[in-house]
Amino acid sequence: MxxxxxxxxxILFAKLKPRKEDVFADIGCGSCAVSxxxxxxxxxxxxxxxxxxxxxxxxxxxxxxLLHMHGLEFLRNYDYDIVFFGGTKDIEEMLxxxxxxxxxxxxxxxxxEMACKVIQVMKKLGIFEEALIVNxxxxxxxxxxxxxxxxxxxxxxxxxV
Length: 161
Fold this sequence. Notes:
Elements: H1 6-16, E1 23-27, H2 33-39, E2 44-49, H3 52-57, E3 64-68, H4 71-77, E4 82-85, H5 91-98, E5 104-109, H6 112-125, E6 128-142, E7 145-160
Parallel strand pairs: 1-2, 1-4, 2-3, 4-5
Antiparallel strand pairs: 5-7, 6-7
């Protein structure tokens, strides 16, 4: 399973600016890397995924509650302050619902077309703040010297009210 890279989580943290009293929702939590990181900085984390295997195999911190459900169902029925979307299935409708409750929202995307779609939806909702392309490269040894290998770039779209 692919996990959000630590460096990307660091940028996400800087953009979302969590407060200790916040409730953080990780929709499409996958590996729970984002959930576990934010758990140290907020009062509660909901890690939500429709994939039962993800929920069954996840290792999470004490204040992270794993929920096996569709993100839209969660967004309609729970309270939260910050929402992170790690996937884009039904993203338009989920952004609309989340924008009514959340103080901050961020979406990580691999495809430029989806990034454009999320930007358009956030602009329409009046919550768009910024879009970033995050490029990370890590070092490796090449002929006894240091070279860098890029990690696939991601698009990060951030919104708030």
